[in-house]
Amino acid sequence: MAYPTHQQYADLAKDAYENRQVTKYGEKGIPIGGNEYQVLAVANDRFSGYQGTVYRDLKTRSATANPASVPNPRNRIYNQAV
Question: H or E segment at 10?
């Protein structure tokens, strides 16, 4: 199994903030950092701010889950000095 390089992880992490849809069968891959990927799954929970995307590298056929946490103003934790 081929593991993504550090740069590929960084490219996928950056792309995880895009509003992606699951790639349908037969559609071309999405170019990210010089590689072609399919989007297998997308999670976006507005309440908690969790956002994650599962990508499949079309060359190696390996899947990578790339969660990203998007700040949600309703769930902010404030630093309180005592």
Answer: helix 6-15
Other residues' Cβ atoms within 10 Å of the Cβ of residue 46:
10
Convert the pLDDT of each residue in 7-43 to its tens digit. 888 888 888 888 889 998 888 999 998 889 999 998 8
User: Of 67, 1, 49, 55, which is closest to residue 29 (Cα–Cα)?
Assistant: 55
pTM of the model: 0.72
Q: Which residues does 26 contact at the CB level (< 8 Å), separation at least 6?
A: none
Please measure the distance between the N-terminal and C-terminal CA atoms of the chain and give it in whole angstroms: 51
Residue 12: which H helix or E strand, with range?
Answer: helix 6-15
Locate all alpha helices (DSSP H) within 1-82, ordered by sequence: 6-15
Helices vs strands, H then E, count in the chain: 1, 4
